[in-house]
Known about the structure:
Chain A contains 10 helices and 10 strands. Chain A is an alpha/beta fold and about 260 residues long. Chain B has helices at about 1-5, 10-35, 40-45, 50-80, 90-100, 105-115, 120-130, 140-160, 165-175, 180-210, 210-215, 225-235, 240-265, 285-315, 320-325, 325-365, 370-385, 390-400, 410-445, 450-480, 485-490, 495-505, 510-539. The interface of A and B includes residues 95, 110 and 116 of A.
Amino acid sequence: xxxxxxxxxxxxxxxxxxxxxxxxxxxxxxxxxxxxxxxxxxxxxxxxxxxxxxxxxxxxxxxxxxxxxxxxxxxxxxxxxxxxxxxxxxxxxxxxxxxxxxxxxxxxxxxxxxxxxxxxxxxxxxxxxxxxxxxxxxxxxxxxxxxxxxxxxxxxxxxxxxxxxxxxxxxxxxxxxxxxxxxxxxxxxxxxxxxxxxxxxxxxxxxxxxxxxxxxxxxxxxxxxxxxxxxxxxxxxxxxxxxxxxxxxxxxxxxxxxxxxxx
Amino acid sequence: xxxxxxxxxxxxxxxxxxxxxxxxxxxxxxxxxxxxxxxxxxxxxxxxxxxxxxxxxxxxxxxxxxxxxxxxxxxxxxxxxxxxxxxxxxxxxxxxxxxxxxxxxxxxxxxxxxxxxxxxxxxxxxxxxxxxxxxxxxxxxxxxxxxxxxxxxxxxxxxxxxxxxxxxxxxxxxxxxxxxxxxxxxxxxxxxxxxxxxxxxxxxxxxxxxxxxxxxxxxxxxxxxxxxxxxxxxxxxxxxxxxxxxxxxxxxxxxxxxxxxxxxxxxxxxxxxxxxxxxxxxxxxxxxxxxxxxxxxxxxxxxxxxxxxxxxxxxxxxxxxxxxxxxxxxxxxxxxxxxxxxxxxxxxxxxxxxxxxxxxxxxxxxxxxxxxxxxxxxxxxxxxxxxxxxxxxxxxxxxxxxxxxxxxxxxxxxxxxxxxxxxxxxxxxxxxxxxxxxxxxxxxxxxxxxxxxxxxxxxxxxxxxxxxxxxxxxxxxxxxxxxxxxxxxxxxxxxxxxxxxxxxxxxxxxxxxxxxxxxxxxxxxxxxxxxxxxxxxxx
Lengths: 263, 539
């Protein structure tokens, strides 16, 4: 197992629960309040209508936003004011995960050393990570030579070499086609089963949530409207707002083709 | 988010840069005020009818110059943007970059060689008017020279703004069957309008502080601006009290107008995504194409004319003899060294301000801008309002009692020219930096890439080209500057423009034309080289 670069990350257990303790935040007009737990080593899907605060929640955990009040706890440690790079967190964005002018090896290597000083062990780890995501031997390629799906694989490879206990996914596969997205979800599920990190997964796709999410957090109007297991949500035990959000019909029938439709 | 503002090294760099600029300007004012305090009655008595006439002319010529430069530039830029591919387009854009790099004194000579009393067009113009052509000294000369400089500048800036329109909007426009008129109204004009106050403000400030053009093309007391009057008060009358009065009046005038211009403009928000495809979705009709060709052709003739005249007149000079003169060689070496240092300093200051502004804007997001951010944003622009002459003179007066002023001449020339070039350097750097930051900011924060690492790994690759462009402009501006050196120049420290002015003053017109050609070609070579370097590095 590849070690966490020792000097940078706030040290926590290998798997760490994420807790937002009465976190309030406001961006412009709408106030957001989050009070929610994400169990360690499990994948939790976060769903909700546009503007409900899904991305903001991830940004608060990642440290791109600082709460106005309340605490963000990761593995029991208060990281509310820690800068993003010192939090035990990796995040994959919807786009712009890679530096266009750097090779795949460099892009992944930045997960090891922000000054890009890589030793042989680092290079081996990078090669292994690229192999793991199906991009073996493409170390010297530039991002523009890759497809959209491959670029997100590179981002996952960096997650592997960073080896932080929490992984935040902010609709990372939203711009991919259905088959590619399924492949990527399988990859995330595989990586998760190997590394047991805590995964917070924002998605608009009910099918994504059902495919790999064990738990579900549903946001509405800037706060947590409901939590539970994904299974319960999809058999109709979720709140009324959730059923309205996904539309009731197709899920009872379980038709995946319809379920994949963009919301 | 206070976190970033307290720990971000970019903000520190910006603060240091602002402090350096404040020191340069503050020191100059201290010198002027201390000098004037010895003779307060002089400052009061400087408010006479001459001063108001000069002030009125300053404003009038600057307004006319801005109008005549910016209004045609809108149409030239639009015409160029409607035809993204035609033979010679790249050449035209290159040519439009030349006046910006061309020393004012060279352009003034070019304008005179073309439209002057003994110019190439004198015979033709005289025949049209039915009498001998009187030349274009005075307001007309100043306007022609200012438009020669600022029309291409404004065109390039407008074109840059038009290129920020996302390709998808053009795709949509062509899908909806939008003709030229609605496309202008709905797509181009909003973009141009947003860029207009900034560009008009820049041109206005350049014109209101233009020194060399007015000195060489203005004629007598009827066509004198505040800046030239300041120079005369210091250089010939040695009346610093009057200079202070003139300076304060000039700064006040410009400040008010710039403030008014800024109020008109909307704040343009940047686009996060890189354009996915080159835009090739135009469908200009035949009539529009002819019209656009006419607009571009006229602008091309107007801009190329004085350059061609400079070339023709310069080739008529005895270039071999000039190149052999030790004074010319000495001046060339001095100019090269000073402008190199000045350009480097200018880039360092500009980059610091650009990074600080961005970092502060990111931490602020929706609230009010702090004073620091405001200064980082507009501070460099306001530097244009303070004439180099005044800065030079202030330091001259401040230091003449404590040290040998001619010993600090190189320092003054480097520092003042560096600060004067900043608005151009910032214009070159900032869009690229902000766009790169938009893409990379969260990623850098997450991966802990900051400070030197970030500059080296992330910012440098996306900034090489704009930095090369900024460097070329800064160096060319400094190379051709005749502001500070007019005050500090001596037999021991001479730059090429100083030598050129001296030869003009002693009616050695051929020598002047030859030196102008040399200076112009060096600046041109500089711009082309940097442009080429930047492009090669990018690919």
